[in-house]
Amino acid sequence: MISFGGGTAVPIPFLLDGSSYWFGPQASTFAKDVDWLFNFILAVCAFFFVLIVGAAVYFVMKYRYREGVHEEPLPAPTHNTRLEIVWSVIPAVLVGVIFWYGFQTYVTLRTAPADCLEINVTAQKWAWDFQYPNGWSEPELHVPAGENVRLVMTSVDVLHSLWIPDFRTKMDCVQGRYSDIWFNAPEAGEHIIFCTEYCGTSHSRMLAKLVVHPNREAYEAWLANASNVTKNFPPVEAGQILFAKKGCATCHAVDAGGPAIGPSFVNLANHFGTSDKHQLQDKSFVTVDENYIRESILNPQAKIAAGANGNQMPTYQGRMKEEEISCIIAYIKSLKN
Ligand code: CUA
User: Fold this and answer.
1) Which atom number of ligand 1 is nearest to the Cα of residue 159?
2) Of 38, 43, 87, 178, which alpha carbon lies 20 to 30 A from 16's?
3) What pLDDT score does 194 carry?
């Protein structure tokens, strides 16, 4: 699943032409600047590494101990103005260049233009939720190409960090406060979003797909279609789509081999209508019906199923409409075997 895609050929010489030899495709407007600076610093480091280590090795060999030759150390030179100016001015210029480009690029990355399309991001263990201007939310990020997009981000639990390698930008998501990043992706395409702050068991699975639509119309068409899933599909099918779109699939299995962080939906379906099969953590049994499932979606702490790994589930209050919950319930019931 993880692929940086793009089929980037190895450009030669790759160090100074602002290419993407080390990273994925340069898919945002500022990716080239970030890569240029990285490659410049790398080239400077490589040059001085060879120079210094080369000189050290040369002198070690040239002035090695030999019997009868300079048994006593020679007086060391104390001062050489020309040499001292050279080794002060050259590094100062290099550091100045690195600072200037670094600062400029940093300011660009951190200053969102005024005309951004804003999308809210909620991070939680272990899924991303992207909320669009019309209220629809789902775990995929969709944006139009060629437009400035600003992500307004927060976390409901621990520290996460949203990273889009192809865009060369990332930012922490912190509980109880907002952070933001912005970008402009000139080309249509697909990219991967990572969580790049270790946040627990399934940190490495905290990925999201980023889809850049060719233009505003295509993005709006996708949004209208996505947000009407309960109108466009019969309940069971809509429920299956929402199961994937709302992040349920991160923790709940619908077949053997699925994740086992939360209760399996198949077990839930098989327990449906019974009052003596579905055990809770306090060893009591609960009647599995529509109300139990609805309560577990909106208030997951109320009744925690036995075997669930702690209770990691966040509430879907305000993030799922009533008709969407009904479709999820219909889908769960359909899994009975
Ligand atoms: Cu979220 Cu790592």
Assistant:
1) 1
2) 87
3) 94
Cis peptide bond upstream of 87, omega within 30: no
Beta bridge partners of 173: 160
pTM, to two decimals: 0.71
Three-point CA angle 308, 238, 229, nearest 5°: 120
Distance CA 232, CA 317 (A): 23
In one-letter notation, the amino acid at residue 4 is F
- The protein residue with its alpha carbon nearest to ligand 1, atom 1, reads 160
Helix (H), strand (E), coil (C) string for 87-101 = HHHHHHHHHHHHHHH
Token reading at 229? 């899933």
Query: Quick one: pLDDT at residue 1?
Result: 32
User: What residue ranges line ligand 1, CB within 6 angstroms?
Assistant: 123, 126, 160, 195, 197-199, 203, 206
Q: How far is the CA of 310 from the centre of ligand 1 (A)?
A: 18
Percentage of the chain lying above the pLDDT 90 cut: 44
Q: At what angle do helices 322-334 and 290-298 cross, to 10 degrees?
A: 120
Ligand 1 atom closest to residue 158's alpha carbon, by position in its atom list: 1
* CA distances to 180, 183, 192, 202, 258 from 163, in Å: 12, 12, 9, 16, 26
Q: Determine how many CB atoms are found less than 10 A away from the CB of residue 225.
A: 10
